[in-house]
Amino acid sequence: MPEPRLAVEEVSVRFGSAGTRVVAVDRVSLAFWPGTVTQIMGPSGSGKTTLLAVLGALLRPDEGRVFWSGRDITDLSEEERTTLRRDKIGFIFQAFRLLHALPAIENVLISRDVRGPRRRGDRERAVLVLNELGLGSKLDLKPAELSGGEKQRVAIARALLDDPGVLLADEPTASLDSKAGTQILELLRNLSDKRHYTTVVVSHDPRWTRYVDRIVILEDGRVIDERNGRK
After folding, report:
1. Orientation angle between helical segments 148-160 and 122-132, nearest 10 degrees
2. Of 86, 92, 134, 175, which residue is most buried, by most CB within 10 angstroms?
3. What is the mean pLDDT of the chain?
4. Domain for residue 78, yes or no?
């Protein structure tokens, strides 16, 4: 089996202090491989989103180690962590986080603007990605003119602009109707197969079971079960 692209070993995260301290993630060890889709499930407060933040280098664990392609990234500086997130990780959220005043193409390119001047070929790359996601005719439409599923695909295009190795999605289908949600499920599955992305999805949506390789169940910050998907 190839080396995991992303892994955590005995990771714990705590919030609060003294008598109000809460253990959000409790000694979790997991590995995630290229070309796979993993669904993380569990009740509210089980630590799903906190674990996703650790995987995405948004949050440093209080204990344990985080690895990227075998490299220990736990103690990277904030500048190094920002560079890793920017270049190697695509984030997809339930709230699409689109700027309402901008058309689809500019909402994709906005991820470039936070780094400095745009580079030659950025727009062509954004058009290519939007076309791949079936939005070639919607480049100049603003979010208010798009359906929920189309908005989420714009958000996914933004995440894909730099062809990241990892996609981290937090409830990406929760705001969508059944048809649009299924389209997003199929899209993320196909992207992982085609580009060998390592995809981790936090979701309560039972439809994911048919599209993921593995399901991880959290409760009180601990992994209580792992099972195969695609059923």
Report:
1. 130
2. 92
3. 91
4. yes
Identity of the amino acid at 15: F
Phi-psi region of 167 (alpha: psi -120 to 50; beta: other; left: phi over 0): beta
Buried b (16+ CB within 10 A) or exposed e, 71-80: eebbebeeee
Residue 146 CA, chain-centre distance (Å), reads 22
Query: By residue range, what is the domain housing residue 69?
Result: 6-96+165-228
pTM: 0.90
**Residue with tokens 């491989």, as numbered in its chain:** 33
Confidence at residue 176, expressed as pLDDT on a 0 to 100 scale? 87
Total of domains in the chain:
1
Q: Are 167 and 90 in contact (CB under 8 A)?
A: yes
CATH of the domain at 219: 3.40.50.300
Question: b/e for 110-131, b at 16 or more Cβ within 10 A?
Answer: bbbeeeeeeeeebbebbbebbe
What is the rounded distance in angstroms from the CA atom of residue 46 to the CA atom of residue 60? Answer: 18
What are the pLDDT digits (tens) for 59-95? 999 999 999 999 999 999 999 998 898 889 999 987 7
